[in-house]
Fold this sequence. Notes:
Number of domains: 1
Number of strands: 0
Low-confidence stretches: none
Distance between the termini: 24 Å
Strand content: under 5%
Helix content: over 70%
Mean pLDDT: 86
Largest sheet: none
Structural class: mainly alpha
Shape: elongated
Radius of gyration: 18 Å
Amino acid sequence: MEEKYNNAIKAGIIGGVTLALYYLLQFILGYIPVVNFLVAVLACLLWPVILLVSVGIGAYGVKLASQHVKTLVDGIILGAVAGAVAGLISAVAQIIFNILSALLSSSTSDIVGSAIGVVFSGVCGSVAAVAIIVVAAILGAIGGALYTFLVLKIQA
């Protein structure tokens, strides 16, 4: 694999881990009754955080591979790769935390209801995961294009 894609993947891993840590914080705080308001605020900020991280990671992926970027299309592709990797890691983390949340919130007296809740959490998480990957790739491409155009001064 070309070095420029390796750099974009590294940037995507950083972004994905950042988003996974955000989900972890939200998950942990959800089990502390005193901070329920903070959990609600974090949930409301989920898409803005995904937006900022994805655009930033797209730009960072281009920055890491800047010596290989010759055209604006190179920047867009590298940003999209970084965003997609970040989205993939983020989506996997979100599915895991959805299933864990369903498992931990279910009672042992209602085994059928608990099983349905876990399956439902996994299915809904998988559907949302596709959206997160696509949105992160698009936003990463935008970040890559912005960095290529504004910082590297490459227009075509």
